[in-house]
Each structure stands twice: as C-alpha cells, then as structure tokens.
Design brief:
Blueprint (H helix, E strand, L loop, with lengths): L9 H20 L4 H19 L4 H8 L7 H8 L1 E5 L12 E8 L2 E8 L5 H6 L7 H17 L3 E7 L6 H5 L2 H14 L4 E10 H5 L6 E5 L3 E3 L3 H8 L6 H8 L3 H6 L5 E3 L10 H19 L4 H13 L13
Parallel strand pairs: 3-4, 4-5, 5-6, 5-7, 6-8
Antiparallel strand pairs: 1-2, 2-3
Helix pairs in contact: 1-2, 3-11, 4-13, 6-8, 10-11
C-alpha cells in the first residue's frame, strides 16, 4: 500500500491491490478472469465515488497537504510561458518559500507569485516547508509593484500553512511585512487574482490573498488558523483537529457560502495529485475567465471592487439592549 494513502483511502487501495494481484495471476497462469476483474473494477469505481464525493473537512485538508500534490512551480510550468523568476527583497535576502516573476499567460504578460513547498527533506528545508519569512512577503510586494508599473495582472498561487513563526521572523518584523502587503495590495491598479491551490493558512495566506477574485481548488482550504492550531487553543490538544476543521468552515464549499471565495476550481477525481495536467487545465480555464472579466474594469473600479469585496466579508449580529 502506498505510504501516502490516507486512512479513508485504505479500502480503495486494498481493493486496487486485489485487482492488481488478480490481473497478474490471470496473465501468469493464462486463466481468463475478465468477468471477475470487470466486477471488481465496477465495485472499485462505486467505492471511489462513495469516498471522494462525501469527504469531510478533515479529509479534504489531508488531500490539500498530500506530498504529491502539484505546487506553484508545477502549475507555472504547465500554464505559463517564458517565466522569468525574480529574486530578493532588496533588503535582506531571497526567500525560497515564495517564487515569482513575469510570465506569459497565453499571449498576455502577467506577474505570477506563489508560495512553494518541497517534495523531500532536502527541498523542504530549501523551501522552509512553504513557511515564508518576512523577506518573502517583501519580495512579493516588490514584484506586485513591478507588475503595476508594467500594467500587467497579478496572479497569486497560495499554498502555505502560514508565515514562519520563528524568532527570525519576529526579529525581521513578519507582522509588519504582511500588514504592508495587505495595505499595498488594496492600492494596486491592476487586476489581482488569488488562488488557494493547497493550504491557505492564517496570515501567511492572506499576505498574498487580497485579490479582486479569490479562487480555491476543490480540495484546498482557507482559514484564519490551521485546525491543529485551533485545536491546541480551544481544546488544549491537537488530536481534536478534525473537530476544529469542521468548526472553522474552511473548505471550498463553505467559503463560497460565506462569500469569501468566488469560485471552486474542480480537481481530478481523487485529488489534484492524481493528474497534474488535468488540474492545471482546470486552473488555467478559471484564470482565463476571471482575467477576461477583470480586464474590462478601470483602474479605479479595480481598487473599489477589491475594497468593497473585503468590506462585505463577515456578518455582525447586534443584540438589543437587555438581550444576552
């Protein structure tokens, strides 16, 4: 069984293994097992449908963190042409957890910025496990300003558990770096599309998330805090992360209902890690649609629309005097 198989996927994996064994037996023995294989494959498709069409919040979070899931550079490679990566924040150093640069989307220039994870220990250390430092956000800010000067749209691909919470981040003012991004992204006069492609955790995600459009992949999440962090605070134990995931309303369908996300981008059946090319096609189609719509708006309208979008988020219920 694949080591990256989640608990809820084990019945699928076990049945797939039985099918593989029967196919191997049929081939080696010369015995026709086509009827049995047809029945088992039919059962497999039914089982997949039952599992993947009824995922709860915690299961979707597990899929969003799958180590085989496509990351920002995987999408950039498949969707954009002539990508020219820029480095450094011009203050401290280059943060490898955030990548970005000019590229072509179709025949139009764009600025694409994304948080990037690694796939093994070496690359994860290099990318700091997708946890950006302050200089990463300052680099992103610099690139957004370049995009504004060049009059090209900004596309942000977000996949991070959060900004790096270590002492180094505090010493170099992580809160200020994220706050500056929030302020400056509201002032951009070019279209901004933010896409949650995996994890959208805490201020680390919102630091790149002030967009005219917020799109989210089917099995991604977007939340003020990770479920583990929430569980540690409210229940004093990270084992309650599944309950916290449900309470946080952080899945794509909930975010659409709450008016935070604008569109859910579908994924290949079973998750984006099943087919990078298909996942990239779905993302490219969504980007094309929204960039086309935003391209018709004036600079002033883009700023106003972005401001109004975020002001409308959240609901406040006021109680009359005397009510509790």
């Amino acid at each position: 069984m694949n080591e990256n198989t989640f608990e809820f996927e084990k019945p699928i994996a076990e049945l797939q293994n039985k099918i593989n064994e029967l196919e191997a037996f049929s081939k080696s023995s010369g015995i026709d097992c086509s009827d049995q294989l047809k029945a088992l494959n039919g059962h497999l498709e039914t089982l997949k449908s039952q599992v993947y069409n009824n995922l709860d919040a915690w299961q979707r979070i597990q899929l969003s963190r799958h180590p085989g899931r496509p990351y920002a550079l995987d999408y950039i490679e498949r969707i954009f042409n002539n990508f020219i990566e820029f480095s450094g924040d011009r203050r401290f150093r280059d943060d490898k957890a955030i990548v970005g640069g000019f590229a072509k989307f179709g025949d139009k220039p764009v600025m694409v910025i994304g948080t990037q994870k690694g796939r093994d220990m070496k690359s994860n250390v290099y990318r700091n496990f997708g946890w950006p430092h302050p200089e990463g956000y300052r680099k992103a800010n610099r690139l957004m300003r370049l995009a504004e000067k060049a009059h090209v749209p900004v596309i942000c691909l977000i996949d991070t558990p959060g900004a790096f919470p270590g002492i180094a981040s505090e010493e170099r003012h992580i809160a200020e770096a994220i706050a500056a991004n929030l302020r400056d992204m509201f002032e951009l006069t070019v279209p901004v599309v933010a896409v949650i492609i995996g994890e959208g955790g805490s201020g680390g995600a919102i630091g790149l998330g002030v967009g005219n459009r917020i799109l989210i992949m089917e099995n991604a999440y977007y939340s003020v805090i990770t479920p583990e962090g929430c569980a540690a605070i409210l229940w004093k134990d990270r084992k309650f992360a599944p309950q916290a995931a449900e309470a946080l309303q952080l899945t794509a369908d909930k975010l659409i209902t709450l008016g935070i996300a604008d569109e859910i981008i579908p994924e290949p059946f079973g998750g984006a890690h099943r087919d990078f090319d298909e996942a990239a096609k779905y993302l490219a189609d969504a980007l094309k649609k929204h960039l086309s719509e935003l391209g018709k708006l004036s600079c002033t309208k883009l700023k106003e629309q972005r401001y109004e979008k975020f002001r409308a988020m959240g609901q406040v219920e006021e109680l009359a005097e005397g009510q509790e």
